[in-house]
Amino acid sequence: ESHLQHYASLCRDDAPMVRRVAAHHLGTLLQNVVKTIGPRSVGQDGMVTTSLLTLYEELAANDQPDSVRLQTTENCIAFGKAMTSLAKGTDEDGNEIMGGTLDDDFIREGSGILVKRILPLIVSTIDDRSWRVRWTAASKFAEVVKSFADLPDAMDSLVPAYEKLLQDPEAEVRTAATFNLADVAKCKAKVHPPPRVRGLDGPDTFSPQTTDDNELVSVAERLVQRVTNLTEDDSENVRAALAMVATELAPILGKDATIHHLVPPVLLLLRDATSEVRLNIISSLSALNEVIGVDLLSQSLLPAIIDLAQDGKWRIRLAIIQHIPLLAKQLGKDFFSEKLSSLCVTWLGDDISSIRQAAATNLK
Questions:
Q1: pTM reported for the whole predicted model
Q2: Of 67, 45, 47, 44, nearest to 55 (Cα)?
Q3: Alpha carbon distance 18, 11 (integer Å)
Q4: Average pLDDT of 321-327?
Q5: Which end of the chain, N or C, is more open, meaning fewer C-beta atoms within 10 Å of its C-beta?
Q6: CB-CB contact of 164 with 138 (8 Å)
Q7: Residue 266 and residue 285: Cα distance in Å, rounded?
Q8: Residue 190 pairs with which residues in a beta bridge?
Q9: Cβ(188)–Cβ(221) under 8 Å?
Q10: Which residues, other chains included, contact 182 with Cβ-Cβ below 8 Å and sequence gap of 6+?
């Protein structure tokens, strides 16, 4: 306990730099305490509950400088991992934790503490005045979700917070959040559907289910509703990030939901004005092909491929050439012979030697 007292004094030091370094090591200290003491550490009078949780709240407070608050997300992940480890009785490496596993009542009690005290702090980072704090939360949100996925009721707080990050005023924050879309959607927890929005013509929209609002849906079913909005984002970086990860939702959603909710925004991305966006979506079609095939996209694929083949940036032309063998395999021999073979021959006359060499390699 004397070590903990010294650490607490560092967390409350007058120098922000000292508090920043102390906050950086809070997660490591927490994991070691849980591993050493076991379930007793998170009891009502445990060291985590009485000391470390209080320090976390102080370090995440709004009166702390940005450099200290930047650690809030990482420390939140540490708390989630610690509770999950206690519930399973083993740490991340599979080593048994001293004191055994938690019983169901203890898990519910510990989870209640997390929901009431820790989750509000990570959710508050979504509205932090510093865009760097929000960016850090956005870039690590998949880890946050993974850490809390097995704890009851946590996702009903985290998923709406993540949706808010996807609508952040700063494009950098939205981009970071979008890169995490597929990983967040992999969470197997069930959540409440988003609030229904009444359309101009009367019917309710923005809900993957036509059932009442009390029926739970998967995280992927809820998040896929955000994909169309992201295809219309003002930032091409956000749309390019979406193009890289959107098709990864297909295996999670299944065939019917993919056709219904994912194919329309993918078609929009194939027609995007920015060449990087079109290239990214074409480069990531494998996951979609495994679920529904690309027959539904073939009519939109060809114009996108032709546009990229004639792009003014030679690196874009080179990238699409390198994807031609995979596209040929996915689209079938007939489609390739009819639509793409002449295009491959055209590349042999390109001004850039790297393009001609790649085209020749494809034709071998």
A1: 0.82
A2: 47
A3: 7
A4: 83
A5: C
A6: no
A7: 10
A8: 218
A9: no
A10: 245, 246, 248, 249, 252
At residue 197, does pLDDT exceed 50?
Answer: no
Q: DSSP label at 64?
A: S
Query: At CB < 8 A and 24+ separation, what contacts does 350-359 make?
Result: 350/314, 350/317, 352/314, 352/317, 352/318, 354/314, 354/318, 355/314, 355/317, 355/318, 355/321, 358/318, 358/321, 358/322, 359/321
**Is 80 exceeded by the pLDDT of residue 333?**
no
Q: List beta partners, residue 204.
A: 198
* Amino acid of residue 239: R
pLDDT higher at 118 or 21: 21
- Indicate the helix (H) or strand (E) that contains 9: helix 2-11
Query: Cα-flanking dihedrals φ and ψ of residue 209, to 5°?
Result: -120, 150
DSSP label of 90: B
Length of the chain: 364
What's the pLDDT tens digit per position in 66-90? 999 999 999 999 988 887 777 666 5
CA distances from 341 to 28, 331, 334, 335 (A): 57, 13, 10, 9
Higher pLDDT, 97 or 163: 163
Task: Measure the CA–CA gap between 90 and 101, rounded to whole angstroms.
Answer: 8
pLDDT category at 211 given cuts 50, 70, 90 is very low
CA angle (121, 127, 133) in 5-degree steps? 75
Cα separation, 48 vs 37, whole angstroms: 10
At 216-259, the pLDDT tens digits run 899 999 999 899 999 999 999 999 999 999 999 999 999 899 99
